Amino acid sequence: MLPQRMKKAVTDNPKKLANLIDLVNLPSSLRDFVGQSQISRLGCFMRVWSYIKTNNLQDPNNKNVVNCDEKLKGILLGKPRVELAELPALIKLHFPKEPK
């Protein structure tokens, strides 16, 4: 069951949802991190989030900040610390833009 906001966004622009769930070929850096050659943008974000939680990379004093280890730095532009709000945008950079 989707929240009302999401239902409206999907019905107004179904391409937004398609961009999140379509499988795409990954570049080598992201492919090594995820362990698959194809994945959706949403699936990739879920894998990154799972890695962050599994390895306790959230800052204990500020849960909105992720302290990147070397593996995570490889896909997040080498940043040592990343805010959670930045994660989707940084992951999106690895996915090719669709031609219009």
Low-confidence stretches: none
Shape: globular
Spell out the CATH superfamily. Answer: SWIB/MDM2 domain
Class from helix and strand fractions:
mainly alpha
CATH architecture: Orthogonal Bundle
Count of helical regions: 6
Query: Roughly what is the average pLDDT, rounded to an integer?
Result: 80
CATH hierarchy class name: Mainly Alpha
Neighbour order of strands in the largest sheet: 1-2
The proportion of residues in beta strands is 5-15%
Major sheet characteristics = 2 strands, antiparallel
| Residue share in helix | 40-55%
Distance between the termini: 31 Å
InterPro entries: SWIB_domain, SWIB_MDM2_dom_sf, SWIB_MDM2_domain
Pfam families: SWIB
Domain DM2: 19-97
Protein name: DM2 domain-containing protein
Give your account of this protein's structure.
- There is one protein chain.
- The protein has 100 residues and is mainly α.
- It has one domain (23-94): MDM2 (Orthogonal Bundle).
- The chain is built from six helices and four strands.
- The chain has helices at 4-12, 14-21, 28-34, 41-54, 70-73, 87-92, and strands at 24-25, 38-39, 65-67, 81-83.
- The longest helix has 14 residues, at 41-54.
- The model has no long low-confidence stretch (mean pLDDT 80).
- Residues 19-97 form the DM2 domain.
